[in-house]
Amino acid sequence: MLKKIMGPVLKVLLVLVITLVIVLGTFYIMLQKCCNGPSEAARTLFITTILETGQLKFLANWVCSDEEIQEIVNKNSMEKVDTTVDTSLISIHSENADETSSEEDNPYADEVFDENGVRIEEISGRTFFAKMMIIKDPSQVVMATTSENGHWGEYGKNLDEIITDRGAIGGVNAGIYVSVGNKGGEPLGVVVENGQITYNKPTGLTGLYMIGFNNDNILIIKDLTGMSASDFENYVKTEGIRDAHCFQEESSDSNNHFVSLISNGEARVLNGTGSGANPRTAIGQRSDGAVLFLVTDGRGASGHLGATASDLIGIMQEYGAVNAANLDGGSSSSMVYNGNYEMSSVTFYYKNSSWKLPTAFAVMPKN
Predict the structure, then answer these.
(1) Does residue 127 share a domain with residue 27?
(2) pLDDT in tens, 74-106
(3) Of 75, 95, 125, which residue is a domain's last?
(4) Residues 145/162, Cβ–Cβ less than 8 Å
């Protein structure tokens, strides 16, 4: 009886194994033709894109040597940028100021927002689809996390849960975190919530940047290189940082993260493509203080590869960002508003949800 059962089972397993070998073999041949064919641009895009993934970096070595990969990384990078924010370039307009100021003083005076001071616009790019959430009042943007009095659990929560628990109406994924196994419970770097530091490990990872808001509701992008935990405590206190988190600036054959996009009105200078094409989340602030949340799709969603650093810079410039930064992207990229996912995770089993996250930039209801 057992032999009768095992026979068909083994045949099915054999067919599955053979099918998998054929699929992987075909995929490998396609990669070789794509990356070693006449199109250098295709090869560059594939390598720079795959290096930004969490689990698929090994595919780069299927088609290129370590030396070739490093050469591509070196040719498609970004120039260093001074991220010291000039706060004088941001002049936050109050409701009364909007009524009396001229269009020259405030070119955004005629914008129409919903009852919460929020507007969402759709953006279609050559290799991506995106949504831009514009929040008129930057004081409504805060950190929302899964932390309970500074205690971080093993598992994070879906973006909509984090937003709801905070009493917020919308938001996007935020900082870098431990994403192995989609547990998402532990952030990396630093986290500040309402002026209180709830995670403080600025050392250990190279290229960490703090991204958040001070008590004047101005977006701050701060290089944490060389800062100790006590240094960061002093910085938060003296500079009045109210809500913030971390992302990483590092370009190598094992990692490819970038932070600054626009600094004091100046776009970051790119070498080559600057980055690959992937799902992205970015934040920016206009001269009137309005906050910009941008989320794009990618990795095959609707046939889209995703957005490059150049795409993000172009969009943020178009929407008037004085300062802008890239946030955690890839499968984490997601946007929620009024209980619905405007943009959800690109991972096939989270199409109407998000990865487990520890932090989010949240939008509170209008007072």
Answers:
(1) no
(2) 777 778 887 789 999 999 976 654 444 445 667
(3) 75
(4) yes
